[in-house]
Design brief:
It is a single-pass membrane protein. By secondary structure, this protein is mainly α. The protein has a domain of 76 residues. The chain is built from three helices and two strands. Strand 1 and strand 2 form a beta hairpin.
């Protein structure tokens, strides 16, 4: 990192001993070591957060790509289904009903439980009491 050899460390130790003195040198070394350790922890934490964000970004890009692939595949399947059925996607009893009934049944979420009243209005069987 800093490329400090043994000779440089020895020189720093001798200067520290002469300037600080032998009584305060051990506590000064402990304090400086604690600062260095705290700085290292901070840099390591920042580095791990950056790596996590880069990983999250890569995952999000992969999800976007997969989502666009799924949309494209669904569109292709829908198009091929429409061409195979001759352009009409309505099947079952709704296709044999009159156009007014088919559209009202497809629009309601309870299309399977919809019935026809005597005056032509559509009613829901969910409102009727259950049969015993």
């Amino acid at each position: 990192m800093f490329d400090i050899g043994f000779a440089e460390l020895l020189l720093i130790g001798v200067v520290g001993l002469l300037v600080i003195g032998p009584e305060r040198l051990p506590s000064t070394i402990r304090t400086v070591s604690a600062w260095v350790a705290q700085i290292r922890r901070g840099f390591n934490q920042i580095r791990s957060e950056v790596e996590q964000e880069l990983h999250n970004d890569a995952v999000m890009q992969e999800l976007r790509k997969t989502g666009s692939d799924l949309k494209r595949d669904a569109q292709q399947a829908s198009d091929s289904f429409k061409t195979a059925t001759g352009g009409s996607t309505a099947t079952g009893p709704a296709s044999t009903a009159s156009p007014g009934q088919a559209s009202s049944e497809q629009a309601s979420p309870d299309s399977a439980s919809a019935g026809t009243a005597r005056d032509g209005e559509t009613t829901s069987r969910a409102q009727e009491p259950p049969e015993k």
